[in-house]
Specification:
Layout (H helix, E strand, L loop, with lengths): L5 H37 L1 H17 L4 H19 L23 E6 L7 E4 L5 E2 L8 E2 L5 H14 L8 E7 L4 E6 L5 E4 L4 E2 H7 L10 E9 L5 E9 H6 L8 E2 L4 E4 L4 E6 L5 E4 L6 E2 H7 L11 E6 L5 E6 L1 H5 L7 E2 L4 E4 L3 H16 L3 H10 L1
Parallel strand pairs: 6-12, 13-19
Antiparallel strand pairs: 1-2, 1-5, 3-4, 6-7, 8-11, 9-10, 9-12, 13-14, 15-18, 16-17, 16-19
Length: about 375
């Protein structure tokens, strides 16, 4: 039977078309909202593109004013929620190394909130610059404190339009630009990084303390920039007696990194010849030694030692002098004791004539045995 009410069919068709358009508009609004959220999370530049894309979607969807207003409000609220930044977590005490000025070869940890592609550890180059991904410009890190470097990185991210409002944190993970070297007459020479305040005594303690052959002075070398930009080395001499024995606080200087600590060995006197224990003996506290002191350290003379000894001394001009000394008279206290300086050589020669005579007498005594031979032997000695 033919349809007798064409207007009713038309109204039904229009209602169905309107319902289809409404559902399509809702689907497009949901898709546009999801795209907008994704773009906001990636970066601020993509966020602007997502807004334009969402506007195109809404313009293409011919929906009623009520549904358009609802979708627009929903999109704005979603973007606002995505852009809302929670309060930063407070930094725990001692969570990173003490803050010093950053130097070449230091390892720093850069954290950019909500940007994992920029959060990483970066090694400062030998020229003092560092490079972050997606940044065209290199950033100078040397000479800056961690807080100053945070501001520089944030400004660079803004200027290149990577992030609208970056939140940057910089921590020092490892110092390699503040070495302190301890060498010389110490038990365990080493080089370590000054990650905090360090004193001279602490540096020597880390090296195991002074060795027995340590001299009376400690040399501390520092690099100093002159007025014309040239780098000079300044050497400071610290007396061991004042630093350790007298506990003078002014001698326990502070070290900031870049220092070289050298402990020279004490000067030595070398004793050789007809003595019981030849060797090299240290001259402590910078004072001069004497012949009798060195003979005591070498445990005395051998039976066939000569009555005269010699001191070999090298002068400042390089000449080597031979100084004879009356050893027999010094031992009998008929002559004053002779002073010895560092690097002197005390040589006690062998009395060959006496050795031969005593050898012959020993043979006679072995075959003889009378009281006369014994008397002769005693007279010769």
């Amino acid at each position: 039977m033919p349809n007798l009410n064409p207007s009713r069919n038309v109204r039904s068709r229009l209602t169905a078309e309107n319902r289809s358009l409404t559902v399509a508009a809702l689907n497009q609004c949901s898709a546009a909202t999801r795209v907008g959220k994704r773009c906001v999370e990636q970066s601020a530049g993509v966020e602007r593109a997502s807004k334009r894309r969402a506007e195109r979607y809404f313009g293409a969807a011919r929906v009623s004013k009520r549904w358009s207003a609802c979708c627009a409000v929903w999109l704005v609220l979603s973007m606002a929620a995505a852009q809302t930044r929670p309060a930063p977590v407070p930094e725990l005490p001692n969570a990173n190394l003490p803050a010093h000025r950053i130097g070449a070869n230091d390892l720093i940890a850069v954290s950019v909130y909500d940007a994992p592609e920029l959060t990483r550890t970066v090694r400062v180059g030998a020229d003092g610059y560092m490079q972050l991904p997606m940044l065209k410009q290199r950033i100078q890190a040397e000479g800056r404190m961690p807080g100053e470097l945070e501001s520089v990185i944030a400004t660079a991210l803004k200027s290149e339009q990577l992030i609208v409002d970056p939140f940057v944190t910089v921590n020092v993970a490892e110092y390699n630009s503040r070495p302190i070297s301890v060498a010389g007459a110490v038990k365990q020479p080493l080089t370590f990084q000054a990650v905090g305040p360090v004193t001279l005594l602490e540096a020597i303690t880390r090296a195991g303390g002074l060795a027995p052959e340590a001299g009376p002075e400690i040399l501390v070398s520092r690099m100093h920039a002159g007025p014309d930009g040239t780098i000079d080395s300044l050497v400071q001499r610290i007396l061991v007696k004042g630093l350790i024995d007298a506990a003078d606080p002014t001698l326990n200087i502070s070290l900031i990194g870049g220092e070289e600590i050298r402990v020279p060995e004490a000067g030595k006197v070398y004793v050789i010849g007809n003595i019981k224990k030849p060797g090299a003996f240290s001259v402590q506290d910078g004072t001069e030694s004497t012949v009798l002191k060195m003979l005591a350290l070498s445990e005395g003379l051998m039976p066939y030692a000569s009555k005269e000894a010699y001191i070999y001394r090298r002068e400042g001009n390089g000449n080597k002098n031979e100084i004879p000394i009356p050893l027999n008279k010094i031992m009998e206290r008929k002559s004053p004791d002779m002073p010895l300086l560092a690097n002197d050589i005390l040589y006690v020669p062998d009395n060959k004539g006496r050795r031969m005579t005593l050898g012959a007498l020993e043979k006679i005594l072995a075959f003889g045995g009378g009281a006369g031979a014994a008397a002769i032997y005693a007279g010769i000695r």
